[in-house]
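Hi Q.,

Before the meeting this afternoon, I wanted you to have the PMV prediction in hand. No need to reply - just skim if you have a minute. The sequence and ligand are here:
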Amino acid sequence: MTPKDFIPIQEPKMISSGKVTWQSPSNIALVKYWGKKENQIPANPSISFTLNHCKSTTTLKFKKRKKTDDFAFNFFFEGKEKEDFKPKIEKFFERIESYCPYLKEYEFEIYSENSFPHSSGIASSASGMSAIALCLMSLEKELFPEIEEEYFNKKASFLARLGSGSASRSIAGGLVVWGTHENIEGSSDLFGEQFPYKVNKIFKNYQDTILLVDKGEKQVSSTVGHDLMHGHPFAAQRFQQAHDNLSKLVNVLESGDTSEFIKIVESEALSLHAMMMSSQPYFILMKPNTLEIINKIWVFRKETGIPVCFTLDAGANVHVLYPEDQKDNVLEFIKNELVVYCQNGQYICDQVGSGAKIL
Ligand code: PMV
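Predicted structure with the ligand bound:
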């Protein structure tokens, strides 16, 4: 498919007003996206687990109006009008306008809320942007009723990607690949697609307990971080490493080999942060407690043989990943040994989920 395939060509129906609500999850990357080309095209492919509990619920109200040169929308976050979120949405609308030519013919009210605490350091852009993209696709489906489910989902992911790259992986459930990879059929730079091969039972309900180490504002936004991969001394090797790790992961996901899984996933997390530490300017998003937790996980794994590992986003929080049948052991370990490193003792228990839902 090409971007042109996402430009509507039929005559739209006349829809005067309506309302739709979508619930869309966050996701956690196993092979990380870090670095992009123009138009939100990723510099390397990535794969993530779709989460279940960390999600945004977004309602879009739309009313037909006389087209003007501007977008007309208001944004409410957790019940309150949020002026500071508007520029991000305005930019998103600008990026997607050529694919959604009806945008300026409507007046929108967008109401969004997150299931996870605001400013918990958990990126809400993936769930938030994918939820808005899905709401717009529901409007588009009313305008063009012939749209089929496959196209609906692909375009939702395509639009979400233009809001925030990782949001493209928040439409489908399970494991989602975004970015062209030679060994993964159907993989595309334009949208995320559900991982198309056999997945071992162990990974179907993998657990992710998110330890909230630092809830403060990130010192460096991911937009700036992605940009620093241009001219980065290790960029080419990093992008190749992501391709290679994804190739290896394809086999591991089928075999259920948790020790190989751990090697790939932890190396990806540390490579992501190594890129930040070796860019110019350089920066560090991990905190001392992030490292304390990582070391504790390594000791616990060595002592017990339990296949628990960590991954990191672009922040200090630690995602603890483990099989469902180890839930009791790992949660006890977390409570006894890791909670002390969390801000206000906070952590969120999540697991692999089934993707976005219309309400
Ligand atoms: O979607 P963005 O532009 O916020 O980038 C997120 C990148 C990471 O979370 C660090 C990695 C990933 O693949 O999700």
